[in-house]
Specification:
- This protein has 344 residues and is an alpha+beta fold.
- The strands form four sheets. It has a nine-stranded mixed β-sheet with strand order 1-2-6-7-9-10-13-14-15.
- α4 crosses α5.
């Protein structure tokens, strides 16, 4: 074994060695491998297959990849200030039931981050060993939301519309690579917007997506793509709370709308209570959680996790499995540690 492969194997073993079960819904991971985002962005990744192939070469394993066979989801998010002026971003991730993974990532070039993944989004391609812990190695490229050391929080939300396929002659990137690039390289909402403008967006999994950003200076923005064009909606006033679910803000955006009721419920709550502490923000997320079973599917769609990101403190209050009696406080500065806190 050459030295490079030996280092990769050591990093893989060290990463898997940090894997920790917090409860039946949540596991924690301190990621210590090189996932070569710089190379991924330079090469471009026009599809989930290309992303998988590049990642497999980076870690020298053909068996680990983002999962291309997962179904559709929902999600809700908003931003708000606390009574003492801190900045929060609340986020529900609504999807097929699955275990949640929180991952701490330390890039060689870039900002440290703490992000959240749905383990169904990772695939270990070996039917005899389908539950191997190696699948967690895909974590950097399956994260759905997170916060970095500069206090920039971001989230991906799904739209049931035609996938974005920009063709402007720029380097293409997929949905989750875009989120990883923002967390690793951007400190503010404006930097996140500028980052996305540099690339052609290529959505994955047969849906399209929009993006929600909030930074430590209480700037927020929503980014959408309609007919190949990027649209940005910024917070108009410093004390304004933005919110987002699963329909276009852009007037001529077309998709099968869902989440209007959740959006209006958040809007009313934020108008009535324009400042909230973390527990109150979690209560708002609880009020818009989802749990249903489609007559065409054998599984339930539920709120896999609810997260309140504190952009000021670089921390997160987390509930999973729709269990709001167990609220965990996690910090970017304390990998794989979580404190159980009392809810309301």
């Amino acid at each position: 074994m050459n030295n490079k492969k030996a280092v990769i194997k050591e990093n893989i073993n060290n990463t898997i060695g940090t894997l920790k079960m917090l409860d039946e819904h949540i596991c924690l991971l301190d990621y210590k491998c090189d996932y070569d985002l710089e190379g991924m962005l330079a090469q471009g990744c026009p599809s989930i297959l290309k992303t998988a192939v590049f990642f497999q070469k980076t870690i020298h394993s053909p068996k680990i990849a983002p999962n291309p066979f997962v179904g559709h989801g929902g999600c809700s998010t908003f931003n708000v200030r606390t009574p003492d002026g801190k900045v929060l971003m609340g986020r529900n991730f609504d999807y097929k039931e699955s275990r949640v993974m929180v991952v701490w990532i330390h890039p060689k070039k870039g900002y440290r981050s703490m992000s959240v993944c749905n383990q169904n989004h990772a695939l270990y391609v070996d039917l005899r060993k389908s539950r191997r812990p190696l699948r967690v190695l895909a974590a950097p490229y399956i994260s759905m939301d997170g916060i970095n050391e500069k206090g920039l929080a971001c989230a991906i939300l799904e739209l049931l519309g035609k996938p974005t396929r920009q063709q402007r002659g720029k380097t293409p990137i997929t949905t989750n690579v875009a989120l990883r690039g923002v967390l690793d390289t951007c400190a503010t909402v404006e930097e996140a917007i500028a980052f996305l403008k540099k690339y052609d967006m290529r959505d994955v999994l047969g849906a399209c997506y929009h993006y929600f950003f909030t930074d430590a200076d209480n700037n927020s923005a929503i980014v959408e793509y309609v007919d190949g064009d990027m649209y940005v909606y910024r917070q108009k006033k410093p004390d304004e709370s933005m919110k987002l679910t699963n329909f276009f803000i852009t007037p001529h955006g077309v998709c099968r709308e869902k989440g209007r009721d959740r959006y209006e419920k958040m809007e009313c709550a934020l108008n009535d209570t324009p400042v909230m502490d973390e527990n109150r923000a979690m209560e708002l997320l609880k009020s818009v959680m989802v749990c249903f079973r489609s007559k065409y599917k054998v599984f339930r769609i539920t709120t896999s996790w609810s997260a309140v990101f504190n952009c000021t403190d670089r921390s997160m209050l987390l509930c999973a499995g729709m269990d709001y009696s167990r609220r965990y406080k996690l910090s970017l500065d304390a990998p794989c540690q979580a404190a159980l806190v009392e809810g309301e």
